[in-house]
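fwd from M.: "can u put these together and see what the complex looks like"

so here's what she sent:
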Amino acid sequence: MTELYAIALFLFVLFLLLGTGVWVGLALMGVAWVGMELFTTRPVGDVMVTTIWASSSSWTLTALPLFIWMGEILYRTRLSEDMFKGLSPWLARLPGGLVHTNIVSCTVFAAVSGSSAATLTTVGKMAIPELRARNYPEKMVIGTLAGAATLGLMIPPSLALIVYGVTVNESITKLFFAGVFPGLVLAGMFMGYVALVSFTSKEWNPSVESGMSFSEKVANSRFLLPVFALITVVIGSMYAGLATATEAAAIGVIGALVLALLQKSLTWDSFRESLMGATRTSAMIALILAGAAFLKLSMGFTGLPRSLADGIAAMELTRFQLLMALLVFYIILGMFLDGISAIVLTMAVVEPMVRSAGIDLIWFGIFVVVVIEMAQITPPIGFNLFVLQGMTDHEMGYITRAALPMFAIMVLMVFVLIWFPEVATWLPENMRSGPG
Amino acid sequence: GEKWDMPMAYSASNFHSENGVEFANCVAAGTNGDIEITVHAGGSLFAGADIKRAIQTGQVQIGERLLSGHQNENAVFGFDSVPFLAPSFDDSAKLFKAAKPKLDEVLAEQNLTMLYAVPWPPQGLYFNKEVNSVEDMAGTKFRSYNAATARLAELTGMLPVTIEAAELSQAFATGVAESMVSSGATGYDRKVWESLSHFYEVDAWLPYNYVMVNNDVWTDVSDANKAAITSCADEAAARGLQASKDYTKFTMDGLAEGGMTVGPAGETLMSGLREIGATMTSEWLEAAGEDGAAIVDGFKAMQ
Amino acid sequence: MKILRRVLDFLYNAAGVIAALCLIAILSLIVAQMIARWTGEIFRGAPDYAGYAMAAASFFAFASALNRGAHIRVSILLNAVSPRLKYILEIWCFSVGAAIAWYFTYYAYWFVYWSWKFKEVSQGQDASLLWIPQSVMVIGGGLLAIALTDNLIHVLLKGNHRIVRDTVESHGE
Ligand code: NA
Ligand code: NA
């Protein structure tokens, strides 16, 4: 009975504060405060400061601002134009043609950027005009972009996985490697869908390019060298055991600065803007994480997560049923919340449930990333929808419909993960062992 | 009745945490429900590093902490982590007995009362190669997590690398680290046999986990309930010690089953390590001053 | 009044610049530690210092992030209601926000005070006196509280807040 009352109260205060527009981080602190004042006799203020200090001065967290900074620097380089030049000659002849450059560019850029919005803006600002000029169906251009950009969250580096790893205290390096194959599989599914539509759609009537000779294609591929060099350095340093995830982020920042310098796009102004932008974005996430740490503690004192986990355990759901329940739960939550807030907000309750169900927390990280990727393209709050609205002047409804097939493919991806968990778990479990 | 929250740093399935839950049950029964303790294992309430301050300042009433984590604050807290000073369960029990009066005094100044303490299994050396002498250790990348382990690396000519606990198995898998000093339990939990090949039972030291209660809370407990809690604490200490011994055996077998070479260190290695232990003991005595000397003298007198 | 305005804006911006410098410090510390490891040197306490820089980078940037519209909020309701109701909602949001930020700052002050009084030291290899890095919670939390109050007063007097969103989209998601 007390538990029901507590749940109702937490939810009421949460919706009140979030719904009326209180900043997410501060709203979480407010909910935590109310919970502790009502359900415990502990000194709330001291508890709040103790946990917020512990969570915000964490070494693991330093990967976050660094990967954001790296993305901010690359956003200001010619990286995406070069990627288009290098990739398009190879992809033009595939069924589906240059729409594949959308997906492949997003996949490649995702491997140097930690966020979906950065992937979307960087690839989109270059790909949309090029594809429109070649008369590809607008809906496919917009839809694949909205969907594929979410790979920024799955393919390492990933801000969402850093936040998840810090919240549930699992290795970020492992999570990063767990994301590699699922990201590639998802990209492959998007490309399969494009090919399928190109055969069946009547609107599919792009202007055909005059083909390049093989040697021209190879020559054009030189444009891909910078981005592949950067990927090799960042992911390779982790894989070869030269660096942890945090250190790889530092290597990435330096690599991005070198690249910008070589391309002559590094000016004092662009350096300053990238640094200030990264500082503000990471402060934004840090405030949410601080609020979430306090909320997790407050819930721990009330005993709510444990009794919920016990309650779920008593229902004797199979793992599959539990995952289906969580899938629906996150899809609904994802309509209203951004992915990072959704992760930190729910983990206090979901983590004990998932652990007691015997689900691998590394695998579950990838599961969560797929579902919050969906949240990026579901209305009314979908980050990629907003970004595309700003870039294309289409209405939200149009963009949402264009992205709907991508949403369906991501749901399918959830089942792929459930049926073939090795897609996520094989790489982190089989990393190179031994020195040398 | 009263409700106490008890944060514990290690996972719910760890023997320390299971012992804590039994202690909590014993207290609930012994005080006829006057005091109910909720155990929050796995750092789910406060992380290990924050637990002592949380008890001190009354954020929680009771909790568990590896006190040697606080040796920067007071060298006395590190008495149980001086390498090769008391290298067995029996010796370590004597050392603990010698240190207890001083510890109680230091803790009282910090508004804390110790209820019971349970040792971890003895700390041994993990390597990714066979090691027969201190010279063999030179140049190995050694995971250090505090001042004492960094010093141990320095004295043995190893390269200390700092790895956070969460990144441990990954660091070994990728070769960021090649060696560590830890109990068999850590290696077993982290399945280090995937990357490491040798475990040497050098029994370097046996660090203790302490269950402490806030003094303001403790003062308000009735004498009858105090007696009940103290007797539960004594039972928990005995039960924990036995669990630690059993677990030592269990994890040694587990490491061997995982494919590691598990066994005592050779005489050449041991004598080299004992020399280093003597150096570190004298260094610790310098830091811990008279209090440290009193503890070591008391311990030696019991031998 | 104009002087107060200038002083406040200077404080928000200066703290933002300090936060950016802390970000550079994080980068330098991590690179230094990596190089130390590769060359067999020891850099004691590097992860701890990087952690302190992380806290400083966050807390010093909170206020300027607020003024630049970087902090996320759910604005469906705010955008849907009448101007009159929106005015009331904004007062509510800034009041709640300011109250939480002041509450935090007050307790952060006492937290740091006791760390200073007890000379509490870090448990890491840095063994730093903890009140020094912990002070960023008081300064940064205080600045955030001031910025929220500043905006609240602005809403009350002028009808709207002073938050101006950047044209470049947030790269957080
Ligand atoms: Na990424
Ligand atoms: Na959404």
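replying to her w this: The longest strand of chain B covers residues 112-119.
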